[in-house]
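Example 3.2
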Amino acid sequence: MILALVLAILYFALIELLLIDASRELGEARRFRARIIALTLAENGAELAARQMITRASTTADAENAQGTMTGEMRKTSSLGVQPFTIIGTGESSGQQVSQSKVTLTGHIDGLRVTIEFAQHTHD
């Protein structure tokens, strides 16, 4: 009878450890999802800002969907010849875990040819 009681206590302790581990993994999965969504939203914000980069000197754009919010800003530093540009896109995921990301693209436009020279992703 004592052996059965010890086995029952060990069994319930094992179940509790499994529940603790499962809740930790669920939290990690939510944080990972929030980070990936925020990165995607930041890139989408940059794309929104770049839509008319050939014809405009600067643009801003923002949008929101069920996954979160995105904003983008594009500015050129010259209007003649080769035109250097910077595009900044930001994204914030929604849900239980909120995450923010930013992407910065730098490059230049030569006529109708767009060249991205550097991309930097940051995550808060």
